[in-house]
Structure prediction request, 181 residues.
Amino acid sequence: MRIIRGRYQRRQIIAPTNLPVRPTTDMAKESLFNIIDNYFDLEETEALDLFAGTGNISYELVSRGCPKVVAVDQDFGCVRFIRETANKLNMKELLVIRADAFRFIEKNKAQYDLIFADPPYDCKQYEDIVQLVFDNNLLREGGMFILEHDKYQHFDEHPHFMEQRHYGKVNFSFFAQTIEE
Prediction:
């Protein structure tokens, strides 16, 4: 995996093969960040990366200027790898938390401008993740939640759903926290 843009542009990151992860492909990540860049000034964006895995999305967010990124994963090996990588690259903006993502969502009191979640594709609780993010008020007004999922998931009926995009086998659904008038 590589960091596409920003201060760590073109940096290759090699994750151990024994981590239980499926990193977002470079093609899908590049497309995703083209969309994100149209919605946010990342230098003013605080982000949450749930099911962070290798930290692929977190590194890209920090590289592009996010002042605060919180990466959450429950796997000890993943958390250790993200921390080691962040230390090597001197990413002081990246906070890594070892926790179950569902419990983190329920207990967390902070709000974020951008939330990205990439649960395992065999996860049976996609809809729960979406609902928990909104029920627990994790997004600031004007914020966006992005869920990476398999092709069988559809969220068109969710009141916060914006759109779904697919890139090869990767699917992203976008949800918005509307601004109250």
Q: What stands out?
A: The mean pLDDT is 91. The radius of gyration is 15 Å. The CA atoms of residues 63 and 69 lie 11 Å apart. Helices lie at 26-39, 56-63, 76-88, 101-107, 126-135.
